[in-house]
Amino acid sequence: MHPILVLDGLDESPSDKSSITTTIKNIAGHAALLVSCRQYDFERYLGACKEQFNAIVRLTHWDETYIKAYVRALKHAGKSRVAEFISRHLAEGVIPNFLGLPLWLGMLAYLAESEPQDVRTRPLPPNDYELIRECADKVAEAEVSRHGARADGSLLRDLWERAAWELHKAFRERRVIKVRELKSALELDGDEGLSEAVFSFLDLRGDDVRGFFHEVFKEYWLAEYIVDRMGNPAYEGQVAEVLAYQRSVVTNKFVRLRIQSREDLRNVTAILRTTFGTVSDSAETSAFAKNQIVYLLGRIDQSTETRDFLSGIWHSDEEAFVRYAAAWGETMAGNGAVENEYSDCLRQYPEWDRMNRGYHLYYYGDVDVEEDRMPPVDDGSTSAEATLRTLFRRLRRNEARHVNLRRIELFTLRRFLETGRKLPREISDAKAIINEAGRVPGDHLFGQKFVQGVRAEADAALMLL
């Protein structure tokens, strides 16, 4: 009789994620496995072993029924303040989607229960970044007090940021940080209470520091570390380095939300543009660092200065991988001439087509690629389920920036289908989505060639289904 092994929270594993696939394959024949992890991590790191499972269940966000059950449990546990707080927002119909996950509801409960004033009039944080920021600030103050540190919460927050960076860098370099190594990097000597407060949030395995006790906290503190370097001219020399390491989609999201909600955007974008010019082309990760700077600029800023910068990169002799990111940003922002040139490159040059597909596979989680092996290139050997799932989500969106990318995204979809990729089974309405995506208004600012090209790509994709 086979044993049953439960591997809960596999996304929290400190091991190199690629080695987990080998481990699962080795033990799958000797035990029944029940594995849980975030969908993003499964698709990026564990997709190669999905044939070891006879069922894959995607858990969705809690709907109102589950949140009400959570409220009842809070009341039963005596947490009446937060129960009333959530109930009021439920009644008003303003519970945001991110609160449909237990972790975020738990953070909200902690925050509400620790408020000294009546929380019934307190507004909900507008997004998950603001919720974790408020929660993290309060936890830092509590940990400093609990461990009797001779410091304040701001110093502890800074140390957690630096710890997240050291751990992230070590993970990407395939090495494990020892406790003494991290203490040295953080200069933790002389205040035992502060050291205990720092390590209270970290996952220790003997002498090894494996991470934060929940991955989302590492992602948050890493985002804070990155943006603090972007927003301070004193750190200009470090910006290229912090952007030269891959980050999760969650960290990238927190970076954007932090910049857009709490930073001087003109200052940050000026630093990013200056940093681009300082990236050494001799560095192994220079192409990736430049790509990430350009990509981030395209996501956060539509100013004339940034638009001119992106257009200049597109028309420069930079590597194709860097120009590719600039063209994407300018197309999204509404530059029809760049969209047309970009689209022609994808169709005329096979290396651009393979790079485009490879970057989609990397960014949306179907493959992992080391920073010094950029750009990722699609050789047709992996599935594209996560990419296709995301492309179909994007094809449903009708904001101007998404429509501006419509011809390129339909082309990308078509090329994945032509290279033998199969749609995920849950996309049962694929034809309807593609057909609707092909209906771009005839007066679109990119002109008739674009409108006709969108329709042609939609029709070509439909023929392949």
Give a description of the structure.
- The relative contact order is 0.06.
- The chain is built from 23 helices and five strands.
- Helix 17 (336-348) crosses helix 18 and helix 22 packs antiparallel against helix 23 (448-464).
- It is mainly alpha-helical and 465 residues long.
- Helices cover 61% and strands 4% of the residues.
- The strands form two sheets. Strands 3-5-4 form a three-stranded antiparallel sheet.
- The chain has four domains: 4-52, no CATH class; 64-124, no CATH class; 148-258, no CATH class; 259-464, no CATH class.
- Strand 4 and strand 5 (208-212) form a beta hairpin.
Number of strands: 5
**Mean pLDDT score:** 88
Helix content: 55-70%
Q: Provide the spatial order of strands within the biggest beta sheet.
A: 3-5-4
Query: What is the number of domains?
Result: 4
* Largest sheet properties: 3 strands, antiparallel
Low-confidence stretches: none
- What is the number of helical segments per DSSP (H or I, 4+ residues)? 23
Distance, first to last CA: 44 Å
Rounded to an integer, what's the Rg over CA atoms?
24 Å
What overall form do the CA principal axes indicate? globular
- Backbone structural class: mainly alpha
Following the backbone from N to C, one meets helices and strands in this order, namely: EHEHHHHHHEHHEEHHHHHHHHHHHHHH
State which percent range the strand residues make up: under 5%
